[in-house]
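User: Here's a protein and a ligand (adenosine monophosphate). What would the complex look like?
Assistant: Let me lay out the input and then the predicted complex.
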Amino acid sequence: MRLVILGRQGSGKGTQSARIVENFGLVHVSTGDMLRAAVSAGTALGTKAKVIMDAGDLVPDDLMNEIVAERLSQPDVVAHGVLLDGFPRTTTQAAELEAMLGDGGLDAAINLDVPVEAVTERMLARGRADDTAEAIARRLELYENQTSPLLEWFDERGVLHTVDGLGDEHEVFSRICAVLTSVDS
Ligand code: AMP
C-alpha cells in the first residue's frame, strides 16, 4: 500500500502513523523527522531547514520534492510500501508525488480530522522546542491556506478518507484500520 496521512500539526498524526506502519508493515516516511535528523546532524540541508522550521514556515517545494523522490526510490519502500507523513503539504508537492508514484498511484489519503482549538491545546501541552505560540499559529495558518486544498485534490482522485481524530488513540486507530482494511481488500 502507498498511503498519505494528512492532519493539522497536533492532530495525532505521528502517533497514528507509528501504529499504521507497525500494523500494515509499511515504511514510515516523515519529512518532519527527516528534516529534524538533518538539523541534529548539522548537514547543509539541516542548517538551511532549521531557520525555516523554527519560524513555522515551509521548506521550499523543490527541496522537499527532491528529498522525497530520493527516499521513495529506496528498496525498502519499493518492497513494503509507504506511509507518507508530512508530505505533500502543497499542491505543487502533491502534483510531484503523483508523478513520482506513476502507475497505481496512491491507495489512500487519510485525513485525520481534529479541530483547530483542540490541536492548539495539544501542541502547547507537548512543549516541543519549535512549539512557540507564534510558530503554532503560523503552522495552522499555513495548513489552512496551503495544505487543506489537498483534501479536495485527493477527494477528486477518489482516495480521500476522513477519520475523526478526536478521542482515545486506540479508538482513532480502529477507525483508521476500518478504512485501510477496506482499501487493502
Ligand atoms: P512536521 O513534523 O511534519 O510538523 O514538520 C516540521 C516542520 O518541517 C514544518 O513546520 C516545516 O517547516 C517542515 N516540513 C516538513 N515537511 C514539509 C513539507 N512537506 N514541505 C515543507 N516543509 C516541511
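Summary: The chain has one domain: 2-30+81-184.
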